[in-house]
Amino acid sequence: MDPQLAQKNPEFVRSTFASIAGRYDLANHLLSGGMDFIWRAKLARLVAACRPSEVLDLATGSGDLALAIKKTCPSAHITAADFCLPMLEEARRKGVERLVQADGLALPFSDNGFDVLTVAFGLRNMADWKAAIGEMHRVLRPGGTVFILDFSLPEWEPLLTFYRLYLHHVLPHLAHWATQRKEAYEYLGGSIETFPSGQKMNTLLEECGFSCEAPRPLTLGVVSIYQACKRT
Predict the structure, then answer these.
(1) Which CATH number fits the domain that encloses residue 148?
(2) Which residues contact 91 (CB under 8 A, 6 or more apart)?
(3) 17 partner at 20 to 30 Å CA-CA among 47, 89, 171, 187?
(4) Is there a contact between 55 and 140 (Cβ–Cβ < 8 Å)?
(5) What is the DSSP letter of 122?
(6) What is the mean pLDDT of each run of 10 residues along the chain (232 residues)?
(7) Which residues are within 8 A (CB) of 97 and not within 5 positions of it... i.e. 6 or more apart?
(8) 3-class DSSP state for residue 180?
């Protein structure tokens, strides 16, 4: 499927992740070379610095980020939400306690309910990025913080050339081996190309009522963390 069409098709995304739920973690660790552990740990430390009492981990998937945040914020109440039930079942098996099946474009939470909201590698798969960020803004308390962790494009041209080669020609084959579902990651490279990164992401957040810190590129810029505060 064309990457842009895939991103705009919630049922394609839901069925794709449902089909690979049992092998999702293996694919993540393999395709990132194990760097996904480091990325989540970095984000969890940033969340801890906010000293939150109520955290929403949106698009939690199999719950790895929610578990990492629980380690750094043991006294916080962490709600993990995802619109794919088989992924939530994986998270439950791993010990994530507060699970909610929820669509990121219509969250079943009251206004101003969370101190911190995190979304790792999930916003890119939502059909309407601006609408999803608007929902994040709604459920955060004034002064609350959103953290977005997702793939980005390196700025150094030689690395970007190599990275694109990996995204479009190597990664799909590795993903096919890991998940036994070729179509599951076929659209990933294209979706990363079209997803706003760097200042473009900050501009989108600012348009939705947030004040942004400078993007934090990790691993030579192949992923980035965005941190933004809900304006009061």
Answers:
(1) 3.40.50.150
(2) 60, 61, 62, 63, 66, 80, 82, 99
(3) 47
(4) no
(5) -
(6) 56 82 84 93 98 98 97 98 96 97 97 98 94 98 98 92 89 79 74 93 98 97 97 86
(7) 78
(8) coil
> Domain residues for 109?
3-230
The number of beta carbons lying within 10 Å of the beta carbon of residue 39 is 22
Distance between CA atoms of 36 and 7, rounded to whole angstroms?
Answer: 22
If one counts the domains in the chain, the total is 1
**180 CB-contact burial (10 Å; exposed 0-12 / middle 13-18 / buried 19+):** exposed
Helix ranges, the chain (H): 3-7, 10-20, 24-31, 35-49, 64-72, 85-93, 129-139, 157-165, 171-179, 188-194, 199-207
pLDDT tens-digit map of 129-168: 999 999 999 999 999 999 999 999 998 899 999 999 988 8
Distance CA 104, CA 58 (A): 7
pTM: 0.92
Helix (H, G, I), strand (E, B) or coil at 81: strand
Report long-range pairs for 180-188 (Cβ below 8 Å, ≥24 apart).
Answer: 180/23, 181/16, 181/19, 181/20, 183/1, 183/16, 184/16, 184/17, 184/19, 184/20, 184/27, 185/27, 185/31, 186/1, 187/1, 187/2, 187/3, 187/6, 187/7, 188/3
